[in-house]
Amino acid sequence: MQNQWITSVGLDIGTSTTKLVVSRLKLVRSSGVLSLPRFEIAERELLYASPIYSTPLKNSDEVHAERIWEIVTQEYEQAGIRPAELKSGAVIITGETANKTNARQILHLLAERSGDFVVATAGADLEGLLAGKGAGAERRSMLIRGAVVNIDIGGGTANAAIFQRGKLMGTVTFHVGGRLIRMNASGTVLDVSPSIRPWLKTSGYDINVGDMLSFASIKEICIGMCRCMMDYLAGRTTPDGYTLLHSLLNGQPLPSIPPIEEWMISGGIGQLMAEKKPQSLADTTVYQDMGPLLAHTWKECSADYPIRLMPADQTVRATVIGAGMQNTSISGATVHLDASLLPIRNLPVLGLNVTPQMLEPTGPLAEVLDAIMESGARLFDQDQSPPFGLALSGMNDLTYPSLQYLADQLHASFIHHHSASEVMVIICEADIAKALGQSLARRCGQRPKVICIDQISVEHGDYVDLGELISGIMIPVVVKTLAFHNRAEEISP
Fold first, then answer.
1. Alpha helices, DSSP H only, in 80-196?
2. Inter-axis angle of helices 124-135 and 137-144, nearest 10
3. CA–CA separation, 238 vs 261, rounded Å?
4. What is the pLDDT of residues 89-117, one digit of tens each?
5. Predicted TM-score (pTM) of this structure
6. Which of 49-53, 59-63, 236-240, 303-307 is the least confident region?
7. In whole angstroms, what is the distance from residue 263 CA to residue 304 CA?
8. What is the DSSP letter of 123?
């Protein structure tokens, strides 16, 4: 196969803004002609970036789904692409928009209409990860061989992703954003988001719709938010400050944070940092919120910390760049599957590291597999087929007898616990999918059908999307990691 390009799209529907990007991913064979085929994405090229739209709302509780679809179709036309051309990408609903009553309905509508392999997902952890990649924090942490945090601050949330030497160390989300308090040019409060009220109350503020806020009081609130976040990321939070911190956190704090050398800001607030510093109430409320003042307050406060403030590669488009360009892997040619079963979206993953001891005749493989299959039956919807994918790692020097023994035990355990399932999905880290898939298929007969792919590193608790075949031999795979959640208990991403 010659080098090939596939088209990917990213769509980000945020609290304040909606944007779309189209990119190309270059697939190349990375193995020699005498080796098992292995493919990877060698280049990622941005083709088109849409204008920044205000996220259309029907009311305070609902996103305007049909207006979103109008934006998508209009931008597809502008970019010169058709939905059928798309092989990868993501639709993500981020920030406070993810809490709207029809958020899940919109995800499914867009996933169904937007292309053969545009995946739908949401969640602050994944949003932070994608924004960190799109902003360049992952790449920067490899360059300085240290820890870099990107804080993606939009209208309703601030998603921080910490990378150390290219590895994601964790994500954490704060109730911080430019539109959490909205006011007009005279300072009259138009709206206060419920998510920021606990922090306001803990900080001693009682702000309600109709109240008047001065420039100084808005600045004071922005300083308080920034310092609370910065102290936490810099390891300066005092025991007395944890009550205030918890009122600002969306979720739990991280178990630990490495010493951070650099931080960068993406999102709408990152973009506003490049604009003129607001000097008055009128300057601050140009968008009927506190976004401009929050942006420049962060710049001012960061000077008090021994952490370098670096410009992000992308600001307002960081998340959508990450979604459209940075979240796809390729499974190689040693696969076993029925192409008619693809695509498969939002498949939860359970993981098993297969040790040499497990593969011994008296080893614990059968008991371990039974425990995992029983867990899958308990956690996931048994009406879905497949109910989950089983990710197998280890097995670097698998012999033929060991592979047959593994196939025997996988078949027996899956049939026992998931007898109604029409499809079994196995995801291998090593290049054994074709041999293992064929061995399983002989045991399964016509039911269940077997999908066995390899060269994909996926962890227990992740979700994957398996795209349609490319050139008849390759599968685009999106791995969606929900960092630091109790992921095995999640049922939908």
1. 103-114, 124-135, 137-144
2. 60
3. 20
4. 666 675 556 556 666 677 667 766 666 55
5. 0.62
6. 59-63
7. 13
8. -
